[in-house]
Each structure stands twice: as structure tokens, then as C-alpha cells.
Amino acid sequence: MNTELTGIIATFLLTLVIAIPLGKYLAKVFAGEKVWTDFLKPLETGIYKLSGINIKEQMNWKQQLKALLTINILWLFYGFFVLIFQDKLPFNPDGNSGMTPDLAFNTIISFVANCNLQHYSGESGVSYLTQQYVLMFLQFVSAATGIAAAVVLFKAFRDKTTTELGNFWEFFVKSITRLLLPLSFVMALILTFSGTPASYDGKDKFISLQGDTVNVSRGPAAQMIAIKHLGTNGGGYFGANSAHPFENPSYFTNMVELIAQVIIPIAMVIAFGYFIRRKKLAWTIFGVMTIGLFMLLIPMLSSELGGNPALAKMGISQTTGAMEGKEVRFGPAASAYWSTVTTIISTGSVNGMHDSTMPMSGTWQLLGMMINSFYGGCGVGLLNYFIYLIVAVFISGLMVGRTPEFLGHKVEAREIKIAAIITLLSPFLILAGTAIASYIFTSHGNAAWAVQPKSWLNNPGFHGFSEMLYEMTSSNANNGSGFEGLGDNNMFWNVSTGIVIFLGRFLPIIGPVAIAGLLGAKKFIPESAGTLKTDTKTFALMTFAVIIVLNALSYFPALALGPLAEYFTMLK
Amino acid sequence: MKKYIIQSIRLTLVLLVLLCVIYPVTVAFISKMSKGNGGGEKVTKNGKTVGYALLGQSFTKPQYFWGRPSAVAYNAAGSAGSNKGPSNPDYLKEVQSRIDTLLKYNPGIKKSDIPADMVTASGSGLDPNISEQGAAIQIDRVAAARKIDVKKVKELVAMNTLKPFMGLFGPSSVNVLKLNLALDAL
């Protein structure tokens, strides 16, 4: 069998081998049961003490959200000022300048929101201080925020009726000490021993074999690349992200990075089932998500391995597949697999440039981000899926003519209203955002911004429209990858995507946590013959259908104008 | 509310120390034991640094094997891909001219011998590798320019070909810088 295909099969299987036990472990960690990492308890106690936190204090869902939002807003202010003044702060060996306010606005929201959309380039846009004390710091804490929010939801369904959902700070700190930090440490060492720089050395210069003078950007990259994948952040140290040979030196590190970005999202699903003592539910959710992955992956593989039909017409060999924007050491199969997982999970790191992938691949990338819950980001993937579950419960309830219930709690008007708002939010942000961008592009091409609207697009025609659609979709999904040909470092894109990222992050956290809190507080109804079971194959199919129908209805017209139109014009 | 603000500030400070000082500095310290001492492994020729093992560099002279086209001319302080879409007419013209260049400098090869990686820009602009086929089409040219036996060049290419990881996973590739160093060492 083709070694490129065996490579991705092995990667996926290894992912499961790590993720499933990790999920069981996480369920125990958050339930406060005994685990082998309990030797870290003194560290946690120290952190609580220094921060004045009493973890015995129980919070209801509103208090949980208040704590979550307070600390997130604090990070916004902290980071914004560091980004603007980075040129005056220490640790800037390459002498990079401070960010403009609009770029800092975009960057800080993007990193606080676990999105990591980057309108700057790592080599020239940020100092070492910013890389570590703002960007890498936020990669840890934003992932932990997502995980902690998901654990609040776990808590709501563990006991029959409860308003006490545990302590937010405890979930948050444990996500770091028991999960993100130890795994990042191991992974950073694997990377640095594979060739990724990790020391604080500044830029280097050498004269190449042919006599050219070459400058080389370096720095503490391995530390950041580890957490950027484990935390499903995706913000790279260097401009080319994980396509850069320093960020991703070999096929082996490519496998490691691919595994790292998927394990926590899968583990969270497993942990959910074990935590609320409904294992079967977790496996059905996992099943739906995995089928989703393969339904996007298989057509993506076929279009990338098939190569660019326009190049085939020129008469060159296409045996190596489509290679524009890709690296030889990974090949098109591993790049296609990467682009699938990085879009269904909101990582957004890339090992090849999405702007140069085939039109149909662009469709699958966009769809993965629009659905945003086939595994999904750290913690938040499960929260997004939970909204689809509630909608599916509601529709099924209508179909059989009963009051819908979820895990023994009646789902009523208030919960459905919240779910509906969250469901409608994504298409609203993506489509309205793209529409405004298209309008400015066509009608105000000469506006005096850093990049004039008429020169935003790196590619003409339908592909150009895809670039704008992709940027908005990626922002709303908190994904952070891009069709990077877009000239995005200017007032319009910095501000608009900043707002989209912010709303696309926090409302889909507030909504599910609120629903879970409201449901958890309701009277528990024991299962009876009339209960709609949510852990059956039928219900799994129902959820899958809801996901597909909602997204198809919302996005088909936009996809038809962009990647689909490009695909059909290339056919003729 | 006020309580949460104070707790947030204190927790943030504690975590800054743990995540931004202790963690990265420990890793940086341990990385000193890696091949490149944590600063990237360098390649030397006659005691002089001529590049980094992982980074591709520009080769345009006929006596060297050429790497892939780069959108940033192998600038290792500003990595990037071309971000050209697959149907962009300007891009397709560019590919056509790369094909013509290859055909001109490598007489004897057919269009259908040229693999896609030799006429498309890499994602990072720093791709250190080309495909085996990409090396194969250049063997005659390099041998002629250096006035050495074709068989010798073929041997060197084979020696510098990286097989799939563990023989099972991923594509095989040829490292251009290592191959060219080996040629110079002849």
C-alpha cells in the first residue's frame, strides 16, 4: 500500500490510542478521583493560595461565567498594551516594531479567543517577549478556558438536580497543571530534539553554498509549537506556520503535531461520558464526529492526490499530487489529512497553504469550520455539539409529539431560544461579514487603508471571493487558518474579524453553559418507556442530519459562489 | 465581582511565572543538549557555516541540483507560500515558464518527466527537499556541468534520498543541500 496513506492511517490510530485513555483520565481528574498525577497537588494548592482562591466555594452557572469572562477581559487589556508597546519592552533581539492599534486589537482578541488568526508575520511582527508572555501564555489559558467551560457542562448533568457546578478556577487550573503543561513539556522536547529551535538566540546570518547572504529567524519556538497544537490554538511561531521546516522538521514531527491537536478534543468527549456515567452517550457522539471527519477527509484526499487539473493540461507529471503551497517531506496525503483536522478542530495551524489547495478541498475546509464540532476545539467543540444535540432533541420531540427531554431534564422554551440564537449566530456573522467585505471590495475599492480594498485579493474571480469567505468563516469558528493571499492587515479586516472572533467565541460558550445550568437545576425525570433515548444509533443519525441540514441551508449559496463555482469553471 | 477581578489578576501573575518563565526556560535549557544546541542545526563546509540542515536554500547554477521554486526566494527571515489559487491565470503562466526553464536547462527530458513539485512553490518557501523524480531529471545536467560520470551522480542521489519514515509512512524525498554538499566534496 502507498506509504502516504499508511502514514495517515497510522496517525489516526495512534491518536485514538492516546486520546481514549486520556479521556478516562480527565474524567477522574475533574471528578477529583485518585489519579497518578496527584503528586502535582502541592503545586495546585500553591497556585490557589497565591491567587486567593478557595476551591471549595461552589459556583452556579452565572458565577462560573462571571469568573470566566472577568479573567478573559483582563487578558485582553494586558495583551493589547504589550502588543502596542513591544518595541519599548525588553526581549526584542530582532528589533521588531510595535503593533498598530487595529492590528493589536485583532491579534489580542484572536489569541484570547483561542482563534489565533494572525494578521502579522511571526518573524517580523512580534518580539520574543510578545511571543512568550502574551501569545504562548494565551495559548495555554485560552485552551484551559474552553476545557473548564466544558467541565461546567459535565457537572450540570452528573447529578440528578443541582445548581452547584463546582469551582471554575479549579477546573481552569487543573486543565493546565494536569493536562496542557505536562503534555506541552514532553512535546516541546520531542520537537527540539527533532531540530526545532528552543533557545533564546536571536537572528543568525550565513553565506549559502552558492554565495548568497541569508538571514535566519530563530527563537524559542518549540515551546510554543507544542501548546499551539495541544491547545488547538494554531498560531505559529514563524509566518509559514507548520509548513516551516523549523516548526515541523520531518514526517515524524508532522505525525506528532497531527496527533497532538486531536487528542484533547476526542478525550473531552470520552471524559464527558465517563464523568456523567453515560459511556454509551459518549461513544455515540464520538461516532457521529468520526463519521463527519471521514466524510470530509476522503473527498479532500481524492482532490489533493489527483493534482491540479490545470497543471495536468500543461503535460507535466502529476504523480506527486497537487504541490503548490505544500512541502515535499509531508506530501499531499498528509497535507490533506492535516487540512481536514485543522479545520474540523479549530486549530487552524497549517502544514501547507490552504489558499493553494484545490477548489473542492476549499469547500471541505470551509464546511469543516462552519460545522465546527466534529471533535471541535479544546472543550468548545463539545459545547458546539451540545447545541446541535439540543436542537436535535427539540425536533425529535416535535416529531413524536412529546415534551423534549435531555438526560432527564425537560428542554423548554428558554433553552431552545438560547440554542436557536447560537445556531443562527454563525451564519449571521459569516455571511453578513462576507457580504460587507464584498460590498467594500466592489464599491469602495479606493478607500485609503493600509491595503486598498481593490488590492485585497491575491487571486481573481471566484477564488478571490473564497478568500474573503474563508477569512470570516475562520474567524467565527475561532479557527485562525486563512486563505493567506488576502491582504488582511488593514483597518477593515483587523476590526471586522476582531469583532467576529469575539462574538464567535464568547456567545457559543455562554449559550451552552447557560442551557446546561438551567437544565441541571430542573427536576430530574426518571427514564420511562416514553423517554427519547439520546444514546441510540437512531438519535445519532438524527443529530447528524440536523448538523448537515442546518449547515447546508445556511451556507450552500455562499459555497456555490466561491469554491464550487471555481471547481466547475476548472472542469471545462 | 470585585473578588473575581482580584483573583484573576493574582492567578494571571502566578501563571505567567509558571507558563512563561519556568516552562520555556527549562525547555530552552534542556535543548542545549540537542544537535543544534537549541538554535537550529548548522551545516558547515571547510569550517564555515553554509546553511541550516533543515532550511532549503536557493540553487540556480547548473552544477548544483535545484530546489523547488520559492515565493520568498528562500528568505529564512520571512517564510511564506505563494498563496496562488489553482485557477489563477497569472499563476498558470508562471508555472508554464518554470516548465520551459527546466526543459531549456535539462535537454533530453520530456515534459511528462517533470514532477509537480519542481514547478510549484512550497508552503514555507524554504522546502529543503525535492521528490526523487525531481532529482532524477537533473542528473544529466549536473553530471555534464561538472564533467563527471552520470553513474557517480546517481549514486550520490541515492545516498541522499530519505526513505519514508520507518520505511512505512510518508513520501520519500531528496535533501538538496546535503546532495550538493556531497557533490562539492567529490
From TrEMBL, chain A:
A Pfam family hit: KdpA
Location(s) in or outside the cell: Cell membrane
Membrane topology label: Multi-pass membrane protein
Keyword Mitochondrion attributed: no
Segments passing through the bilayer: 6-27, 65-85, 133-154, 175-195, 258-276, 281-301, 374-398, 418-441, 491-519, 539-562
Keywords linked to the UniProt accession: Cell membrane, Ion transport, Membrane, Potassium, Potassium transport, Transmembrane, Transmembrane helix, Transport
Broad class of where this protein is predominantly found: membrane
Any Gene Ontology CC annotation: plasma membrane
UniProt xrefs under InterPro entries: KdpA
Gene Ontology MF terms: P-type potassium transmembrane transporter activity; potassium ion binding
Family from the record: Belongs to the KdpA family.
The protein's assembly and partners: The system is composed of three essential subunits: KdpA, KdpB and KdpC.
NCBIfam families linked: kdpA
Reported function: Part of the high-affinity ATP-driven potassium transport (or Kdp) system, which catalyzes the hydrolysis of ATP coupled with the electrogenic transport of potassium into the cytoplasm. This subunit binds the extracellular potassium ions and delivers the ions to the membrane domain of KdpB through an intramembrane tunnel.
Stated name of the protein: Potassium-transporting ATPase potassium-binding subunit
Gene: kdpA
TrEMBL record, chain B:
NCBIfam families to which the protein is assigned, alphabetical: kdpC (TIGR00681), PRK00315.1 (NF001454), PRK14002.1 (NF010606)
Phylogenetic classification of the source organism: Bacteria, Pseudomonadati, Bacteroidota, Sphingobacteriia, Sphingobacteriales
Membrane topology listed for this record: Single-pass membrane protein
Name of the protein this chain belongs to: Potassium-transporting ATPase KdpC subunit
Main location per the UniProt record: membrane
One GO location term (cellular component): plasma membrane
Subcellular location: Cell membrane
Domain of life: Bacteria
Swiss-Prot/TrEMBL keywords: ATP-binding, Cell membrane, Ion transport, Membrane, Nucleotide-binding, Potassium, Potassium transport, Transmembrane, Transmembrane helix, Transport
Keyword Cell membrane attached: yes
GO MF, any single term: ATP binding
Organism: Pedobacter alluvionis
HAMAP family referenced in this protein's UniProt entry, alphabetically: KdpC
Function: Part of the high-affinity ATP-driven potassium transport (or Kdp) system, which catalyzes the hydrolysis of ATP coupled with the electrogenic transport of potassium into the cytoplasm. This subunit acts as a catalytic chaperone that increases the ATP-binding affinity of the ATP-hydrolyzing subunit KdpB by the formation of a transient KdpB/KdpC/ATP ternary complex.
Family, similarity comment: Belongs to the KdpC family.
Oligomer status and interactors: The system is composed of three essential subunits: KdpA, KdpB and KdpC.
